[in-house]
Amino acid sequence: MPDAKHDHGSRSIATRTVHHPVASPTSYPVATPLYQTSTFRVADAATIARYAEQTQPQAYYTRWGNPTIEVLEKVLADLEGGQKCLALASGMAAVTTTLLGLLRPGDHVVAGSSLYTATTEFLSSDLAELGISVDFVDPTDPEAFARAVRKNTRMFYVETPTNPTLQLTDLAAVCRIADETGNLAVVDNTFASPYNQTPLALGADVVIHSVTKYLSGHTDVIGGCLVTDAETAEQLWHQRTMLGGCIDPFAAWLVLRGVKTLAVRMQRHNDNALAVAEALRSHPAVSRVLYPGLASHPQYELAQRQMSGFGGMIAFELAGGRAAGVKLVESTRLVVLAVSLGGVETLIEHPASMSHAPLSDEQLRRAGIPPGLIRLSVGIEDPDDLIADLWQALDRLS
Ligand code: LCS
């Protein structure tokens, strides 16, 4: 290593505080080391020139690649069953890098009408400014995707289950139509997590996650990723490097730490959400509960076919409408009033007054969000404590 030729002892403190010895190359830590560095020492100018020509060199400059981030990308690609993963600074960096990297002016997208608010906004406003048009269709109807295809359609874009209404898209059917009509199928798998659903196995071309949610799981990271084939990943790596949305190495390290418990966390999220969903159905203030694991969910049969578990997200509707929604989310004591989801703590929100506040009533109606709809991200606490807290809050509505 170039470091070996330095004689640290004979240099001044101003130099020695800056130049540290290299970590022992003969130890093999079980936990992935954190390479919290923006750049990497290289042996000679020719090496730099060679790295600058490569896709994802791991020891050149962290916006290009970094060993901690590379380990995370290998882990996430493996979990989704894809060839390559790119980790990004946020879920929205993953969404925008994918869309900007794969679409060109004049292209058309067919998207599900129920998507995370910022994704809807980027698709309908930002892409329109670039001359890319989007049609939003019923995500529960695969034929609606087929009917919306035009000569210039390039991509289908869906989330399943959707945020916040827990609607499902039949991935095998929609991905088959995408394939038959020469379109890419992009799936945001954030709500399900790869523990419960793997869209690439059902024919998707690109899977996106807000890593902020279940994959990191501890409410302490903002991150994103996309998983795809090697060729598409190379194209999107160039886009990520130009847009600059690489993940920070420390965030990548935290996700690596969090993902180690994904299976046990998801099993508990799945079990807790089913218990809470079943309990909510019996409270008189609740008019409807939406959870893919309940036999009453309109797409229960599809959920059984497509998912191996149903996740921690529940939506329920209050008979008392908007006012009841605001009152309920301000009345819980254990359950936390906050946006985001997928962490170990149970969070509650009221889409009409919070996450979907930017949407007009007409947009809300089209996204199928009633004013009294509540979204619950069920954590890993004792389910009896969660039910008791929700109960005391619901009782205050009468
Ligand atoms: N995709 C889905 C399905 C999401 O729910 C979110 C964030 C994103 C992408 C964007 O990820 P981020 O950039 O925040 O990592 N969803 C949020 C939510 O429902 N409340 O707060 C954030």
Residues in helices, as a percent range: 25-40%
Instruction: Specify the biggest β-sheet.
Output: 7 strands, mixed
Q: What is the architecture of the largest domain at the second tier of CATH?
A: 3-Layer(aba) Sandwich
The main sheet orders its strands as 1-7-6-5-4-2-3
Which cofactors or ions or other ligands sit in this model? ligand LCS
Number of helices: 14
Quick description:
The protein is an alpha/beta fold and 398 residues long. It contains 14 helices and 12 strands. It folds into 2 domains: 13-259, Type I PLP-dependent aspartate aminotransferase-like (Major domain) (Aspartate Aminotransferase, domain 2), CATH 3.40.640.10; 262-395, Aspartate Aminotransferase, domain 1.
Give a topology summary.
Layout: H1 13-16, H2 45-53, H3 67-80, E1 84-88, H4 91-102, E2 108-112, H5 117-129, E3 133-137, H6 142-148, E4 153-159, H7 171-180, E5 184-188, E6 206-210, E7 224-228, H8 230-243, H9 249-259, H10 262-280, E8 286-290, H11 300-306, E9 313-318, H12 321-329, E10 336-337, E11 347-349, H13 361-366, E12 373-377, H14 383-395
Parallel strand pairs: 2-3, 2-4, 4-5, 5-6, 10-11
Antiparallel strand pairs: 1-7, 6-7, 8-9, 9-12, 11-12
Helix pairs in contact: 3-9, 4-5, 4-8, 6-7, 10-14
Bound molecules: ligand LCS.
